[in-house]
């Protein structure tokens, strides 16, 4: 039901940045719903005299601050690029997600301390039917709120909204502990709210740390997923006129700001105009269909030279003899004033312990013994996504 409502809401938007509009709307929903929750829980806490319920109410008040931060984050993210920030301001969402996560940690730690204190100094709860009804209503509101955040976060890929969703469900667990402990104490007289609170507090802390790690990864520059890389490979395979591709690098400046560079191998007999036409088409297609600002580097390959093809096959056999799963590209043989130079790049798997210098010396030695006298220039690739 919520998902269908969101679709209708999006369809009513007439701005170019629907994602930002939905993020701002989520912040407003969170702010008003958390204010309502604070009022409900505080009323229940004052009626029952329960410190834990009052503490839960204060937690909802803290969530109001998180909602304000979410609104602020999306407001900043919507700002256009400027001279100081040429790639825009979308990374501010990552900062918002980090701050919200720190808030989750703080609440979890405080709840842990309160739970330990409750174990050491048990206190009787004075609950009434009205208190139970108010707590149940607050749980229902939080479940709906968390489900709403989760749907929005999934639709717009926002860490800030994802963090708010997790915080909402954490609040559900917290209130359930208070409610469950009240029921058990009312029926059996057992005072277990402190022990259950410790378990929930540890769970909240675990989720807070997980979200912080994800936010920090985004701020530092997280690489694409295996699914995204496979999508790019599948996309490039449609261009049958190019020989190959390698050395992909991707840079994220926000959920909707992705820049990439890649090396495209082409026939060296192409004219500059023909090469530009093909590369320009690839860059435009990446922008239109994948939302990626791609810059292509041309690598001309002499596929029609019999001499270079022969040397290429010899080098390939040498590398295969090492049984290290070494792959190479950008192969060419240059002639300059009687000096022949073999140039190529080698892709080194992550599990190879040999240094670049050790590999270079071994390859130079084998080329001299098996092919002839050549200068050898090798670039070693260890960080690229597509190799």
UniProtKB/TrEMBL annotation:
Main location: membrane
Gene3D superfamilies per UniProt: Cation efflux protein transmembrane domain, Cation efflux protein, cytoplasmic domain
Bilayer-spanning residue ranges: 21-40, 94-113, 125-149, 194-212
SUPFAM superfamilies assigned: Cation efflux protein cytoplasmic domain-like, Cation efflux protein transmembrane domain-like
Presence of the UniProt keyword Iron in the record: no
Domain Cation efflux protein cytoplasmic span(s) in chain numbering: 224-300
Family under the similarity heading: Belongs to the cation diffusion facilitator (CDF) transporter (TC 2.A.4) family.
Entry superkingdom: Bacteria
Species name: Desemzia incerta
Entry-linked Pfam families: Cation_efflux, ZT_dimer
Keywords: Membrane, Transmembrane, Transmembrane helix, Transport
Name of the protein this chain belongs to: Cation diffusion facilitator family transporter
Domain Cation efflux protein transmembrane: 29-220
Subcellular location as annotated: Membrane
Keyword Transport applies: yes
GO molecular function: monoatomic cation transmembrane transporter activity
Membrane topology reported for the UniProt record: Multi-pass membrane protein
Recorded GO CC terms: membrane
């Amino acid at each position: 039901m919520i998902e269908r409502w969101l679709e209708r809401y999006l369809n009513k938007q007439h701005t170019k940045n629907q994602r930002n509009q939905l993020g701002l709307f989520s912040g407003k929903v969170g702010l008003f719903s958390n204010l309502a929750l604070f009022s409900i829980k505080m009323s229940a806490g004052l009626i029952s005299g329960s410190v834990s319920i009052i503490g839960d109410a204060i937690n909802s008040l803290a969530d109001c601050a998180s909602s304000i931060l979410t609104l602020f984050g999306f407001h900043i993210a919507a700002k256009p690029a400027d001279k100081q920030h040429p790639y825009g301001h979308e990374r501010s969402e990552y900062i918002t997600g980090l701050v919200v996560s720190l808030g989750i940690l703080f609440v979890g730690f405080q709840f842990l301390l309160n739970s330990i204190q409750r174990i050491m100094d048990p206190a009787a709860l004075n609950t009434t039917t009205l208190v139970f009804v108010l707590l149940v209503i607050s749980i229902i509101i939080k479940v709906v709120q968390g489900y709403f955040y989760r749907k929005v976060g999934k639709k717009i890929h926002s860490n800030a909204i994802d963090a708010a969703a997790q915080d909402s469900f954490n609040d559900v667990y917290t209130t359930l502990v208070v409610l469950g402990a009240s029921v058990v104490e009312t029926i059996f007289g057992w005072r277990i709210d402190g022990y259950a609170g410790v378990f929930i507090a540890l769970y909240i802390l675990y989720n807070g740390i997980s979200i912080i790690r994800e936010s920090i990864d985004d701020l530092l520059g997280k690489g694409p997923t295996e699914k995204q890389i496979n999508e790019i490979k599948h996309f490039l395979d449609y261009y049958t006129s190019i020989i190959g591709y390698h050395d992909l690098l991707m840079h994220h400046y926000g959920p909707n700001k992705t820049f990439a560079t890649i090396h495209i191998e082409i026939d060296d007999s192409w004219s500059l105009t023909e090469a530009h036409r093909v590369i320009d088409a690839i860059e435009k297609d990446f922008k239109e269909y994948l939302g990626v600002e791609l810059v292509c580097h041309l690598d001309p390959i002499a596929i029609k030279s019999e001499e270079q093809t022969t040397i290429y096959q010899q080098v390939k056999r040498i590398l295969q003899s090492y049984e290290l799963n070494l792959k190479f590209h950008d192969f060419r043989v240059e002639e300059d004033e009687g000096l022949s130079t073999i140039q190529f790049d080698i892709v080194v798997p992550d599990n190879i312990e040999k240094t670049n210098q050790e590999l270079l010396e071994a390859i130079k030695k084998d080329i001299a013994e098996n092919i002839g006298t050549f200068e050898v220039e090798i670039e070693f690739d260890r960080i690229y996504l597509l190799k």
